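The step that takes the researchers longest sounds almost clerical: writing a folded protein down as plain text. Below is the pair of lines this work produces for a single protein:

——
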Amino acid sequence: MTDIRNAVRALRKAPGFSLVAVLTIAVGIGANTTLFSVYDRLVLNPVTIPHPSSLVAIWVSNPQLNFNAPAMSWPRYEDTVAHAASFESLGISAFDNFTLTGNGDPEQLNGQRVSASFFPTLGIMPMSGRNFTSQEDLPNGPAVCILSHELWQTRFGGRREIVGSTITLNGQPWQVVGILPPRLSPPFAQVQVFAPRVFEVGGLTPIQVQNGAGYAQPIGRLKAGLSLAQAASELTTLGRSYKERFATRLDANNAAEPRMYVAALVGNLEPTFYTLLAAVSLVLLIACANVASLFLGRLTSRVREVAVRQALGATRRRVMKQFLVESLVFSIIAATLGVLIAMWGLVAIQSIIATQLPPNTTLTLNWRALAYTGAVTLATALLVGLVPALQASRTELVETLKDSARGSSSERSGRLRAVLIVAEVALSVVLLVGSALLLISFITLQRTPPGFEAKGAAAAFVGVPAARYGTPAQQAQFFNEVAARLESQPRVSAAAAVIGLPMSGFNPRSPYSVGGRPVLPLPQRPIANLGIVSDHYFTVMRMTFAAGRAFNEGDREGAPGVCIINQSLAKRLFPGESALGKIILRGRDAELKAEIVGVIHDVKTNGLNVPAPDEIYYPIRQVPRPGMAIVARTEGDAATLQPILRATVTAVDKDQPISFFATLETNIAQSLGVQRIVASLTSTFAGLALLLSAIGLYSVLAYAVSRRTPEIGIRMALGAQPGQVVGLVLRDGLRLVSIGLVGGLAAAAGAARLIETLLFGVRPLDPIVYGGVAGVFTIVAMLACLVPSLRASRIDPLLALRAE
């Protein structure tokens, strides 16, 4: 307790110094705590599922078809359930859509088809009612469903009697058999209704399901004592057996791979967060170096105090302990303030990136974040206090107490402070280069032409029930009528229906063959993005044609099949010749022919940072679907289209709602969400680093000027001009900056290689970026050096010599 009281007393003796030091470290600790809390919530613990360490997601890959996704076929899943021994249980799910009518306005629900084993495997069971039974999971089983807690509360008022009663989904009665607990984890947070029979998912025919179409997401619980590698080995063996027995199925050549469920869910977020954590750690290191430099400067004024302590019997170990306790107390105060900064920071981040966060996600401090803060605080105490403590313990008692001996300790302290400044500059340069590369990458990505005009356009999804729109002609008629009515609205310039809207996150793929060439077995056929569109789609999207024409009313059921492909696919399939008039084949036996009547310029369908995929478009009248997006264009604000879309769909069919409304500009912005967050946060951290380095450089030079006052006075008394004195101090400061710049640029070149996968349109060793960073830092350094230099040039020689 005595050491702590002495530490508090020492900090109170210099309130200005203590305030600056505490604020500097508090910012560093607060930034680290904030980012760790986000990392913990989104990457380390993104789910509230029981025992997630034994839960795996099974992914399917086919390198030849550039396919890698958690999308298994129903037959492959059944085969895995029948033969796999590594799993305690297996379940499977597939997203589907349901239209709820009755008890209010019609509503499009986010649905999910799940197997009877899905919820037991996941570890989440209904809080009211029951789970699905195995009998309900058989073909033509009863129409039963389980509701999410949120839908139960908002749509049905939380009435207990809803369990056992019927609701109307897709125009048919469904019995509610259960209610799930509140606030489900991603990716189920937005699912409102669950139904059995994954093999009955909308949009796929029974033939497509049995042919091996991959569309469902399997999960499994590993048996106790079994590793992921053992499960992977078994799935590989089962895959070879499946290929031998079902060589003609679409998924015969697909490989199944188990991945830890949490790791598969967070995807590529982990390396992104590593970049951000490295950046914010550099900020803390720079802050620690800055404050350690301040402590060393303050040590010079305390050498006599240390000498007196030694004279009274204090050992070097005792002196070191005292300084380390001071550093610890100081760090704890800074950490307390840092936690408050982190709480504010999390609120700010929650509001800024709310649209990028999974539903039901709240960013808060928890015990893990506080434990991390405690560890950071201890590390900070050592980083800040160790060098001053070692320096203080080496104080020479006799020499220090001599009036004439003033320089040895201060000279050592000055050298150490210079080393710390060089380190600050180098770390800041690394962070500045990295943030500049990421910022330029984001700006370049943002300016990349997507291949369509997003401004003024918006879209919403509409799914029609097969019970009322059972034939392809009825489905096509509904969407064509909606589009025609929209175009009659005064504020709508064009409208269309589409499957495969760019940047929507839903882009189905389908195998194809080329007419006149050998038809490969189904598993070996190439795959392209599948687009199904109405007549005016390309006009709505303002996509341009490289050759040929758009679809028209003549491209209907019973007429010769037609299609449109994108330019990259045309060049690959028909190099050096026109694609128009060529034939694309589809269907299990390649029996369906479509003549290529148009070639459009490439569209960045899957994201601005990935190449345009191969794409084949078919007219809605020849290849209809029961669920499509309605896209419309206006000359004004695209957000105003939402009530127009809703009213138009209701006018065609009062029981059909719209869902997932979004402007196309919003879709593009959403696709760049991660890049925007990384660029903005690293730029913020780099700005902090630059500011801290400038403050550190200023403090070192200001201290050096104060120590060299007698020397400067003598120089001026002997005729040195103010400009010469300014140059003297500037040279000292810029020499430190130059050393730090050289080391920092070299380190930045190595660090840039680590973030190369996050860059787009900029080289990791771009000389313009490195030269710009060096120039900016030099200017900032000169400004930091200028104030102490001007102060030195105004020293009165007589006063300086009298003080000496």
